[in-house]
Amino acid sequence: xxxxxxxxxxxxxxxxxxxxxxxxxxxxxxxxxxxxxxxxxxxxxxxxxxxxxxxxxxxxxxxxxxxxxxxxxxxxxxxxxxxxxxxxxxxxxxxxxxxxxxxxxxxxxxxxxxxxxxxxxxxxxxxxxxxxxxxxxxxxxxxxxxxxxxxxxxxxxxxxxxxxxxxxxxxxxxxxxxxxxxxxxxxxxxxxxxxxxxxxxxxxxxxxxxxxxxxxxxxxxxxxxxxxxxxxxxxxxxxxxxxxxxxxxxxxxxxxxxxxx
Length: 261
Hints:
- There is one protein chain.
- The protein is α+β, with helices and mostly antiparallel strands.
- It contains seven helices and six strands.
- The protein has helices at residues 22-40, 54-63, 66-97, 125-134, 162-171, 188-214, 219-244; strands at residues 2-9, 116-124, 140-146, 150-158, 175-176, 249-256.
- Helix 1 crosses helix 3 (66-97) and helix 1 (22-40) runs antiparallel to helix 7.
- The relative contact order is 0.20.
């Protein structure tokens, strides 16, 4: 048993409902979802359903400024990206210079003079011996270091023999070393020391940023409440827009008692 009432309407559904822009709601949902996902990266706790009473729910909906936390998360994400890019750049420089660590001279000295050509670079290990055998005796070649695949060296020759020397090096896959700009007045060791200091500063910045984010983790539950709130608004608007497109719609209002178990 129960009671229902059918209310017909020919001019769409207007019963106390104020439509809102779906695109605006989607933007809010996207921002909130991003922030929730971002904050979850900084906690090991599993996500649990948020349970709250109606009074708390209404307070969050009316008073919680989610835009501030969204902007905070976006700024933090940008900061992490900037730190990551800086670290990758420094690590690339570091890896490129490590084979030259024992070259204990300023990098700006590894360059041509008025009478000599200077080459710094590397070759596959298997080809270095062949190059030594092929170049002339008065060409100086000093091996700086080796790894599993390559030999790193500096070669000095008379300028008159540079063309022939270059052809020989190219024949065996020589790769020229380009030292970092702005680091010419330093040795590889000194420049690597500066890189380590910069990497440590970035690690400290990343740690501080993570700790600051963890202080905002309590906002996650409020964001989840607001996500549900805006999602429900979207569902209502979607239904409203759909029903308004029909030629004839009606309301079915009332209650039907459920059967006792």
